[in-house]
Amino acid sequence: MTQANVPPIYDTGLNLFRTEVVENPDLRIGQHLISTILSHITLERQSFPVDRTAIKTNLEMLQQLSTDNKDTVYGQSFEPLFIGESSKFYERESNEMLVNCDAATYLRHVEKRLQEEYERSQHYLIPSSEPKIRRIVEKELIESHMKTVADVAQPYSIPNY
Amino acid sequence: MWGVESDKVRITTFCYGLEIQLGRDPVAVLIENRLQTTCACFRRHLPSTVEVGVAICRSNCDSDSASFVVLSFAVSPGRGQAPTPWTKRNSGQQAVRSPPIKYERNSEKETKGAKEGNPALSSLSLSEWPLTQTQRILNDSSFDDSWAVLSTAFTQIHNKNASELSFEVLYRNAYTVVLHKDGEKLYNAAKQVVAAHLKTVAAGEIYTAYQELVNAPGTRDYDKQDAGVRCLKVVRDAWEDHTLCMRMIRDVLMYLVLSHQCTRALLMLGSHLRDASQCPAHI
To answer: Which backbone phi and psi does B11 adopt, to 5 degrees?
Structure first.
């Protein structure tokens, strides 16, 4: 028998779902799916209600589909785009907010965002994404604007004798 | 067909047979010990849900060499561990449980072994047997016949009509195909059916849902939110249907999976016996 090297039929079936549906070159369902999920995440960040369960099942599906180089579709296609989109979103947001708010409001907002992203990663992202997205929020909202925030904050934080 | 050879132990597998010749080991007690090691070895390398029966059919003992031939090596799902039958998906009725598959005893060979007074035979469990060579020929059917039954069944499974299928009939057909050494052909044919079905699903409802999303009125993300949720749900349903169908297909092709594990176990057993033969004093 020459079957010793073929994967079990169930794994083959899951793999077929990836090649025929998600990564089908004619239909591009994977790209549509990922951009839909990303737009829903952006909507949630803008305080619109979204269907978290639907997003969760789809992301779990992407996590279960393994690619040829032993990664998953989630890790290979979704996560880089998610990190990129989040980075852009927070860069834009921090630039807008620093023009309009004082430092205390800004810092409270940063804290809220960190909390939100943590909850999101618990609700429907894969746990391994949590440190990555936290890093993005810290970088875009805090590190990049440390000096600006400190400058704006000075009159309030250090009493002027 | 493959074999492992060393100067003391020779193993040749036939369809499901195993021949072991021992070189300089002192006679009958050692045969029994070695055979029990063999059985234990099979059990260790196979999942606990699988039962193994090994029987000696012929043995030759003289003062300084011994050999025996294991012609029946049966692997079957363990008792009480039959593959989980699926429930009817479209109705609230109770699940239909298929009767466990029974193997006929290989009476002819057993008698022969008993007549020769083999000491080890009585100590082995002979509860599960594969079909014998003769019965296989009697039950002969071509790959195409079995595949016709199986492919119809897969279509039914994909169309959510699985409740009308008989698990036993399907399992038996898959079993026959594998015994006729058409396992690989069956594997590839099943793969094609699944792929074709997925193509239809992808180009059908999933693609339609995404067309609706692209054509939805409005330009902002918010305007397209409802259409987006529908897409996510369509993909989710397709995924859940697919994993369920694959579980059923895996159950039907259980014997294919078992024979795959069996091939691996035999390969490991071969090297185990070869290693063991290097130090007969410890057996």
So the answer is: -120, 130
Homologous superfamily of domain range B141-252: Cullin Repeats (1.20.1310.10)
Enter the pTM of the model. Answer: 0.62
Return the CA Rg of chain B. Answer: 25
Interface confidence, given as ipTM, is 0.84
Our CA dihedral for B274, B280, B282, B283, rounded to 10 degrees, sits at 70
CA distances B49 to A128, B43, B78, B84, Å, are 34, 10, 5, 12
Domain ranges of chain A: 3-153
Write down the residue that tokens 């997003």 correspond to. A55
**B190 touching A (Cβ < 8 Å):** yes
The size of the A-B interface in CB pairs under 8 A is 125
The Cα-based distances of B82 to B49, B50, B96, B120, B255 in angstroms read: 8, 10, 13, 29, 12
CA pair distance B235, A62, nearest whole angstrom: 11
- How far is the C-alpha of B283 from the C-alpha of B34, rounded, in Å? 7
Distance of residue A123 Cα from the nearest chain B Cα, in angstroms: 17
CATH number of A3-153: 1.20.1310.10
Rounded distance, CA A134 to CA A96, Å? 20
3-state secondary structure of B163: helix
Contact with chain B for residue A73, Cβ under 8 A: no
For the segment A122-132, what is each residue's pLDDT rounded down to a tens digit? 999 998 899 99
